[in-house]
Specification:
single chain, about 170 residues, mainly alpha, Four Helix Bundle (Hemerythrin (Met), subunit A), two-stranded antiparallel ribbon, 7 helices, 2 strands, about 5% strand, globular
Length: about 170
């Protein structure tokens, strides 16, 4: 009975925290979903396919992973009011190193999403496209990841792999 009460109390407190900052909580929810798909796809794609690209005019799979990692630093540091950049897309090629760099980039972004409140989220910051709210930069980051996850899905399907978002759930 004590465990049930403690669990209920924890869930109530967590719901209360989300109610205080619903915009930043929702932003973090969608970011967390796509982050999981991207990491699992990067881990699932065999090393040999990291140099695969379906046509000469697009990035290789590994470059997409590196591009997503680079942009975690860009978008999240912008939302935080900092300037942080990396060049992973152009300098890192091995699967192990790219997955490691991707996870580090997400860890940086996690700290920004975890610390964002709605009050901070509506503050304006300078961006590549003028002034926008901090939370809009985080949401743009999420949208950008979904865009490139679409590329990842296509590459995986061409190679006969089921992308993480399409895997059957265990019952």
């Amino acid at each position: 009975m004590k465990n049930i009460l403690m669990t209920a109390l924890a869930l109530t407190c967590a719901a209360g925290l989300n109610a205080q900052d619903p915009l930043s909580a929702d932003s973090k929810f969608w970011y967390t979903a796509i982050k999981g798909f991207v990491i699992r796809a990067a881990e699932k794609m065999p090393e040999a396919n990291y140099s695969f690209k379906p046509s000469p005019d697009v990035r290789v799979f590994g470059q997409i992973v590196g591009h997503i990692a680079d942009d975690q630093y860009y978008f999240c540091s912008t939302a935080k009011g900092e300037q942080k950049s990396s060049d992973i897309e152009k300098t890192v090629t091995s699967k192990a190193d790219l997955v490691s760099q991707l996870k580090q980039a997400f860890a940086y972004c996690d700290s920004v999403y975890n610390g964002m409140t709605d009050a901070q989220g509506v503050e304006k910051v300078k961006t590549f496209a003028g002034e926008h709210t901090r939370i809009s930069m985080l949401d743009f980051n999420t949208a950008h990841m979904y865009e490139h996850y679409g590329n990842i899905v296509t590459y995986m399907r061409i190679k006969g792999l089921v992308p993480p978002s399409s895997e059957k759930k265990e019952q």
